[in-house]
Amino acid sequence: MKLIKDKELLRNIAQQIDLLNTIGGGVSETYVDIKKYKKGAVIEVWSAGVNPEAFRVVLHNNQLTIFSIFQSQENPQLGAPLFNKIFMLPPQVDLSRIEAVHQDGQLQVRLPYHDAATQPKEIEIKQL
């Protein structure tokens, strides 16, 4: 059964099946997980058969939108949405340091917190 051992072939077949399902009215199965840590949070997105180039991450004010679009190779102006998710970011996220990384079929959006949010600070009490 060399056919099953060819992982690239299986990946391509799975991508085509998922794409045909999506275009035919189905949806792209997408898994989203949010992991919180002391110094920040990570949004993990895994969508079967979606190329890394299809993902987009857009930040507007405190709203983070993650989506993917299937672009037709015959007509680049024709696109079909595969996934769309909007996240309202809490104020402790340092918006200037957000980064997105695609690795091993998974998109990770890293949301570091402001240094002040992770370090306790004692407030001086003034005598009036």
From TrEMBL:
Gene3D superfamilies to which the protein is assigned, alphabetical: 2.60.40.790
Q: Which residues form the SHSP domain?
A: 22-128
SUPFAM superfamilies per record: HSP20-like chaperones (SSF49764)
InterPro entries with a match to the protein in the record: A-crystallin/Hsp20_dom (IPR002068), HSP20-like_chaperone (IPR008978)
**Origin superkingdom:** Bacteria
Family designation: Belongs to the small heat shock protein (HSP20) family.
**Name by which UniProt lists this protein:** Hsp20/alpha crystallin family protein
